[in-house]
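S.,

Sequence below, as promised.
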Amino acid sequence: MRLALSLDDPVASRLATLLTEDDLPRRVERVTYHGEPVETIPPGTREPILYVSRHQARKRQPVFTVHSLAIPSEDHPTGGLVPTDAHLLTRLYTFLSSMLREEPLTTPFGSYSVSLEASHHGPLSPYESIFLELGTHEEHWQDEAAIRWLARMLTRFLHSYQPGAERERVFLIGGNHYCASAERILPHADLAGCLPKHTASLIGKRILTTLHAWYDLILLDWDGLPGGEKQRLAKLADDLHINWMKLKEWRRQHA
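The prediction came back faster than expected:
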């Protein structure tokens, strides 16, 4: 695994001063760079890349967010998708959720939580990539207590994490940007990402084929998709002989 930290990002640059090579297990390489994440940063690896950065949103909520990457487009060779280590994404999210219950983080900006976000933004890299982000506003990016908490938790996680998994790897289509349905999936499978309902019209043959090649199963959140789009996606998946299920039917199998 590579831990990628931009020295021009307020959260990552502070973490770079807190997380030295001695803090990390040998199998984790810390990589620092300048500017925005691009396809060539860091180059020459087939290991998963964990980027840490700031997160911006309209609501000023103290939160950590975890997500995979995608800029959905049928014109891109992979449909604008970036491969994801579903086991790593799932374990990182569940670890942070557990730690926030055991060691709650409250600062002058409020009590922090963790959320899964839909797959979005780049870089459109061929390497398995995940983003871990802090905050929603500049005040959170400068929150020293939150950054120090994150540094401690990242150190614990990276030392305890074991690559590889036997669980089913699934990808969710439908629902909202914050993947509300994910909590019903994670106890039973590793989630690689989510394309929310507002991107449904962008999904075509190339995106579905890529998801089928990379993961074990596509889940359609039937109640979280526009009526015409869910019928279209189901028919297209059937025509392409792609392995998919309705989320509610999959959940019944795992009840």
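The two ends are 34 Å apart (CA to CA).

Coffee later?
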